[in-house]
Amino acid sequence: MATTTTTKVQTLTGQRVRRREDPRLITGTATYVDDVKMPGMLYAAILRSPHAAARIRSLNVEAAAKSPGVHAVFIGADIEGVGPVPCAAAVPGLRVPKHTILATHRVYFVGHPVAVVVATDRYKAADALDLIEVDYEDLPAVADPEKALERGAPAVHPEWPDNIAFTQQTEYGDPKKAFAEAGVVVRQRIVSQRLIPTAMETRGVVAEWRAGEKQLTLYSSTQIPHLMRTQVALMLGIAENRLRVIAPEVGGGFGSKLNVYAEEALMGFVAMRVNKPIKWIESRRENFQATIHGRGHVDYVELAATKDGVITGMKIKIIQDLGAYHQLLGPLIPTLSVLMLPGIYNFHNAEAQIVGVFTNAVPTDAYRGAGRPEATHCIERMVDILAAEIKMDPAEIRFKNFPGKDAFPFQTATGLFYDSGDYAKPLERALEIVDYTTARSQQRKARSEGRRQGIGICTYGEICALGPSPATPAGGWESATVRIEPTAKVTVMTGASPHGQGQETSFAQLAADAFGVSMDDVVVLHGDTAVVQYGIGTFGSRATAVGGTAVYLALQDLRTKCGRFAAHMMGVAAEDVSFEGGVFSSPKTSKTVQFGEVALEAHICRNLPPGLEPGLVATRFFEPSNFAFPFGAHIAQVEVDGETGEVKILRYVAVDDCGKVINPLLVDGQVHGGVAQGLGQALFEEAVYDEYGQLVTGELMSYAVPKAIHVPEIECDRTETPSPVNPLGAKGVGEAGTIGCSPAIVNAVVDALSPLGIRHLDMPMTPQRVWRAIAERSQA
Amino acid sequence: MDKPIRINVNGKAIEATVEPRLLLVHFLREVAGLTGAHVGCETTVCGACTVLLEGRAVKSCTMFAVQADGKQVTTIEGLARNGELHPVQEAFWNEHGLQCGFCTPGMILTSVQILTDQPDLGRDEIRHGLEGNLCRCTGYMHIVNAVRAAAKKMAATA
């Protein structure tokens, strides 16, 4: 037994530790789905509908099947019985169209899969696609959700001619009274346009069927390997424990890979049929046509307030463009918007209506923020419109309507309990950073010189750390197993499925701190259903607050168990053992035992303590009691070029409160990336379908993802209000930047144009749209 | 119709007989077995497939392998020398210049080229230099920090 003196070890939690994921990524040695290669592997290519709505009169695959290198061609009729593509959104009264794996008699959107070809390489598979003859009878289509609601609009699904998938009506408090008694009412139609998530890695699947073992393995670029396993097993009609899903390196998701798609089941089916490993990699065009889109709201909003700016009520009608089908969560997304409508303001009367609309377009579903950016954009625009109406400063009106910092847990108008918060603090900090008073006087000076400068504020709150299980469709907990190996190495298996967020690093920080070992002694495993017990996945800013807590709890269990081994080894009572810096000690006897000695003894068990089982493995499932609610204040300063309509961002300040932080470097990265996506929505991005339902923005050449020159330098700061919902005190930060950014930018541009009488502009505020708004007002 | 070609990839000659339509990126990934160059768009927009051809950054998804016949190609796998990371690789790591990592090989190789052309680039110039490479995760700021840091280190050791 060693008797070294203990040295206080600095904890890694809270430090800017560089990532352990990076060495493989910066050297090109990481394995994404397209990097998986297997002996005898064949390549699949999918024929997709070029029409938004059409009847399939006939389908001839003979020539394709005879094309060089082709092993098989499958059409809808071959795969009946597999599927359907699942929707887990339990919205009352929801009309759920049967979503088959391949189209059979009719296609409903451009990109709808019709047939699959399997060949020896991707070129030959693509050649054969061109030889498939489909006789389509083109039908009228509708891709605009408001037009779809008009009388006489083409029916997306003939059985539901009104194109309504569901409606939801909710009322909180007494909105009628609030509006009747209001000193001021402001109204606005606000659009949160359809966006294309555009993860840099498209989707892809490798399917391997081992007939002898009756085992199917799917490599898929997914955020939810376990949920996918359950769903795809059901779709294929195979036992869940005969399916293994591996999410290898995943090149971004942003919600677009929080789904179970037709292609995952299709590739499993094909692999089992041809008895060879199959690879399918989505092209970018397919990704834009057939992977979910996000947002797609048209909102009619009203805000009631007193004449001196106290908000008293809100009304909203959300028209949600759902696309032709429901993917996994689609119809739930606008219900999240309703929950978050009140933002971080203290009013209790609200009325919300959702009309979910079918269109001949790819389904919408969760995209970074999923329902909250839409809600935040509405309330933050309306607060600015109200401020303009009563001529109050936009910062002042916000301070006026925040609940006090002692009001937590704060019950919102929509029945949520915000866990903790101090909403004035990040706004005060952000105003201080931009030097608001000076900034306003500079703005006045610029205006007097004919320059259109604006300052935009967004104070957001968001719901994350999803979430308590009853509030989620498939369980809101997360799991972790921690195993201490006989050689004192620590292996963490998490049900979270990180794909860029960096939990291989932050969870290793937690583990290294728990046992006083080096991070190099820790390995974090994820994304493989044969390795990880079970898990929910990474989305909704939940991996740290929920998944990290499960890791933390498992680490604590093992600390306790190690302490009991150590006590027995030192011959003292367990409660007399302390642990620091990798050394167990008993202050009473001044005996010590190293963590490494305990790890070995727990496995070889020369002298097993009574009542203790061998081994050091702990599994914990953490069920949060509530969501966590991060918040913050973003301020943008812009200048609009009156000649071109171009928006230049002069300054961008983001003050976020995501609770306790494990690794500030990673949090900065999340905020930066989130802001860039929010900026994309504010200024550049829009998925445009034309009147025939053709996707006009069908490639990266026409869909404007922000480039390095478009994104400003982002000045990050934070306040820290721990969440009481989990022992880490973490809230979540994956989506905050996106939620905070778009309204800040739009508010700034509208502020810049306010001397012209403009009080609202819809996104994306392209130079053309801004220029047109200026031109119309200047003429008037 | 197939054509024999010889491409020097990361200092090693690779010979193969290929279809004229084979894209350089597929030659690198499938024939040479180097999967560091990624396919993100097939339309020369995203830059995930960027490699250095005779020292210049090119997008290997819109170039045929036969066009690189007899030429030198450097991929991300060939950037580190004797197990030592290139200063740009090291800087991307230190500055958290990547998240999902899919754009990273292309982003690093473009950065290498712009720093080779002009070692002392300002932040705006770096942003312009990276216009041909998209990143959806980082918001570019840490990437710009990384390129600045690499420039400083390369200047110090030059």
Q: What would your notes on this structure say?
A:
The complex is a heterodimer of chains A (780) and B (158). In chain A, 28% of the residues lie in helices and 23% in strands. Chain A has 780 residues and is of the alpha+beta class. Chain A folds into 3 domains: 22-29 and 468-622, Aldehyde Oxidoreductase, domain 4; 36-369, Aldehyde Oxidoreductase, domain 3 (Alpha-Beta Complex); 371-405 and 421-461 and 629-779, Aldehyde oxidase/xanthine dehydrogenase, molybdopterin binding domain (Aldehyde Oxidoreductase, domain 4), CATH 3.30.365. A 7-stranded mixed beta sheet of chain A has the order 3-5-1-12-9-10-11, sandwiched between helices. In chain A, a hairpin with a 2-residue loop joins β22 (578-580) and β23 (583-586). In chain A, α6 crosses α7 (262-274) and α9 crosses α10. The longest helix of chain A is centred in the C-terminal third of the chain and has 28 residues, at 543-570. The relative contact order of chain A is 0.13. Mean pLDDT of chain A is 96; it is low at 1-7. Chain B is α+β, with helices and mostly antiparallel strands and 158 residues long. Chain B is built from 5 helices and 5 strands. In chain B, strands 2-1-5-3-4 form a 5-stranded mixed beta sheet, with helices on both faces. The termini of chain B are far apart. Chains A and B meet through α1 and α17 of A and α1, α2, α3, α4 and α5 of B.
Supply database-style keywords.
heterodimer; A: 780 residues; alpha+beta; Aldehyde Oxidoreductase, domain 4; Aldehyde Oxidoreductase, domain 3; 3 domains; seven-stranded mixed sheet; 19 helices; 28 strands; B: 158 residues; Ubiquitin-like (UB roll); DNA polymerase, domain 1; 2 domains; five-stranded mixed sheet; 5 strands; 34% helix; globular
In short:
By secondary structure, chain A is α+β, with helices and mostly antiparallel strands.
Helix content of chain B: 25-40%
Based on CA atoms alone, the radius of gyration of chain A comes out at 28 Å
CATH topology of the largest domain in chain B, which one? Ubiquitin-like (UB roll)
Radius of gyration of chain B: 15 Å
Oligomer state of the chains in this structure: heterodimer
Biggest β-sheet of chain A, characterized?
7 strands, mixed
How many distinct beta strands of chain A? 28
- Please, how many domains of chain A? 3
The averaged pLDDT of chain B comes out at: 97
Sheet with most strands of chain B? 5 strands, mixed
- In the CATH scheme, the class of the largest domain in chain B would be Alpha Beta
Q: What is the CATH architecture annotation of the largest domain in chain B?
A: Roll
